[in-house]
Specification:
Radius of gyration: 47 Å
Oligomer: single chain
Number of strands: 14
Largest sheet: 6 strands, antiparallel
Strand content: 5-15%
Strand order of the largest sheet: 3-2-1-6-5-4
Shape: elongated
Number of helices: 20
Helix content: 55-70%
Length: 671
């Protein structure tokens, strides 16, 4: 039964823990930190990119290319500005022929737009590029017309389509290539037809159509190669850059996601460690206070243990007065507690304070930076008040204080409420055991029942204590039955389990540990919840026929039903059997009545201790599994580790983990 609870708890805890998606080289496991109750840090939020970001990425790259072109245009303008200025200056200083002055003036006119577009603000990009291209074209035509094939005009004109492709695009580059080609053809025709002439040494080659055709072919071929090469490379370089940027962004998203998962695992592991430590502390406190029967010692021991194990700077226990109008301080930790106890500190049971609110409403309450506190508690930044109750009755209030805001979370409050419930049960036990000595001596069987039940720590020990007490009476047999409830369903049990069976005169027909559906119970649930006596099984008309048949087969002629109730919930029943009919003695009935009350309290106390022990084991196991999983981010290794650790913890022969359909089927791992 405990393994089933642990298995369900593991499934619930791991259902919301996503497995890591990828490994990263720079991921270093964090060093473990000691558990301490703190408010968890807000998780890192990562916005994943999808296909809708592609247009934005393309637009960003286009902007980058345009910015590069702008800078290139500025560089070209600087080069032309400096080079042109030097060329014109040298030309004016070295001319020897009046015709050179005219040529230098032409060069100057061609050069003047360069500084204008460079230094004027707001000149569009296209006008700047057009100015550069026109300047180069003009100088190239002048050089080609003045020197023919032997000059540098063709080289200048060859740079024109190259720059057009770089600064504009493929179409503009082809247009520039066509214009330059037609210009060379025109100059060639002018030289060949005699409209233009050169120095005699250059005239022979420049006047020949053969030389010009050869030069034109070479110019076209080279220009075409340059234009096509750039047109081929530039888009592909841009695409490669785009893919590189996209991959970089995806890598950053994956890295951020891995960091988020690592932080989540760290927080989960830290919370599990803190939770396990709290549950271990709760179990330790429960073991300590159940063996103390003097209230003053019990209270002081409880507040000191809670302060030490949970890390609070002040812990107190308040008890209500007879009218439940005031909550009176009974015990507190430290020097502050001593002073407040000497002052007779008390708090009104109303909504003006956390303790008063918890006492009035029977609910736990956490207050951040409480405003109305005792002057000695000025350092308090977080306070929690938890009612100590048994069966709907308020026995006191557990009050804890911390010096840090946000010190308590929901798990902390749940653990502290479990401690408060244990203290309430211990208070009730201690009060019952502190009755007058004469009454204890007069009812020594009842006293022995109390002693046995208060020292029982497991359900089996509780059953043995019940059977030992019943065996001291006139009974010939006893059956201790506990009910099992479905998770989150406290209304109706779905099964019963035989916790203890005893017969004085024969071997029992039922064995401890047997579990049957609730439908197989010979009694309806309404009868189980109350105490009743049957003095003659054969003649009693209130006994169901199914129950009569069972008892006649087991030679039970008289019986007593002792219910085990905790508030509105029925924990089980004790059926006392006798082999002859007749009424039970008054002393035996008193013992059975006391047994009903005290055994119920013992069963509830053991159940709470068992739940805390199970939670501690569960959290330690989950913490261990989480730590093992965090050692790697490979999905295959994670699944193997999880299956192996769960199988070892639950002593299972086979564990299979099946992934959801969106994962590749070859990732399913079982052990």
């Amino acid at each position: 039964m405990q393994d089933d609870k642990l298995r369900h708890a593991l499934e619930d805890l791991f259902s919301n823990v996503p497995p890591p998606e990828a490994e990263t080289a720079d991921l270093v496991p964090p060093e473990p930190t000691p558990p301490a109750p703190r408010a968890p840090e807000p998780p890192l939020v990562v916005e994943e990119e999808d296909d809708s970001d592609a247009p934005n990425l393309e637009s960003a790259l286009t902007s980058d290319v345009q910015a590069w072109r702008q800078r290139l245009v500025q560089i070209i303008l600087y080069v032309l500005l400096i080079g042109g200025a030097l060329g014109i200056l040298v030309g004016f200083l070295t001319f020897v022929d009046p015709e050179d002055v005219v040529l230098m003036l032409v060069y100057t006119a061609i050069y003047l737009p360069i500084p204008l577009v460079m230094f004027l603000r707001g000149v569009p990009y296209r006008i700047k590029v057009a100015t550069i291209l026109v300047t180069i074209y003009s100088v190239g035509i002048i050089e080609l017309a003045g020197a023919g094939l032997s000059g540098g005009g063709r080289n200048l004109l060859l740079t024109l389509p190259v720059l057009a492709v770089l600064l504009f695009g493929m179409r503009e580059g082809l247009i520039a290539l066509a214009i330059c080609t037609l210009s060379i053809v025109g100059v060639a025709w002018a030289y060949s037809s005699g409209l233009m002439s050169l120095y005699p040494a250059l005239q022979n080659s420049s006047a020949s159509w053969g030389w010009w055709l050869t030069g034109i072919v070479i110019f076209v071929v080279m220009g075409t190669l340059l234009v096509l090469s750039q047109a081929y490379l530039i888009p592909r370089l841009t695409d490669a850059l785009q893919r590189s940027v996209q991959l970089t962004r995806e890598l950053n998203v994956q890295r951020t996601r891995l960091k988020q998962q690592t932080r989540t695992l760290q927080q989960t592991n830290q919370a599990l460690r803190r939770r396990a430590a709290q549950l271990e502390a709760s179990a330790e406190i429960g073991r300590a206070i159940t063996s103390i029967f003097k209230l003053d010692q019990l209270f002081q021991r409880a507040v000191n243990l809670i302060q030490d194990r949970f890390g609070f700077y002040y812990v107190a226990i308040f008890l209500p007065d007879d009218a439940e109008a005031w909550a009176i301080l009974e015990a507190a930790s430290g020097e502050i507690g001593v002073q407040m106890k000497e002052q007779g500190h008390r708090i009104a049971v109303d909504n003006s304070s956390a303790v008063g609110w918890a006492a009035a409403r029977r609910q736990s309450r956490v207050v951040e930076r409480p405003g109305t506190l005792h002057p000695l508690l000025a350092d308090t930044r977080c306070e929690a008040a938890l009612p100590m109750m048994v069966g709907g009755r308020l026995l006191g209030v557990l009050d804890v204080h911390a010096t840090e805001a946000g010190f308590l979370d929901a798990d902390d409050v749940q653990a502290l409420q479990g401690v408060a419930d244990q203290i309430a049960i211990a208070i009730q036990n201690a009060r019952r055991l502190s009755e007058e000595a004469s009454l204890l001596e007069a009812t020594s069987p009842v006293y022995r029942v109390s002693r046995r039940l208060t020292t029982a720590l497991t359900p089996t020990e509780v059953a043995n204590a019940i059977i030992a007490s019943v065996a001291e009476t006139e009974a010939d047999g006893c059956v201790v039955v506990t009910f099992q409830y479905a998770p989150n369903d406290d209304d109706e049990p779905d099964a019963l389990s035989y916790l203890g069976v005893w017969r004085r005169d024969r071997e029992p027909d039922f064995k401890p540990g047997m579990t049957l559906p609730i439908a197989n119970s010979p009694f309806p649930l309404e009868m189980i919840r109350s105490m009743w006596i049957v003095t003659d099984v054969a003649k009693d008309n209130t006994l169901p026929e199914s129950a009569r048949h069972v008892f006649e087969e087991t030679n039970a002629q008289a019986l007593v039903n002792i219910p085990l109730n905790a508030g509105e919930r029925t924990l089980g029943q004790v059926v006392v059997l006798r082999s002859y009919p007749g009424p039970f003695s008054r002393e035996a009935v008193r013992l059975y009545e006391a047994l009903s009350d005290q055994a119920s309290v013992a069963m509830e106390r053991v159940r709470l201790m068992e739940e805390m022990r199970l939670r501690g084991t569960q959290d330690r196991l989950v913490s261990t599994v989480t730590a093992r999983i965090r050692e790697t981010l490979d999905v295959h290794t994670v699944l193997q580790t999880a299956a192996r650790e769960i199988g070892d913890a639950l002593q299972l022969h086979d564990v299979t983990i099946r992934l959801s359909p969106e994962h590749p089927p070859d990732r399913t791992q079982g052990i």
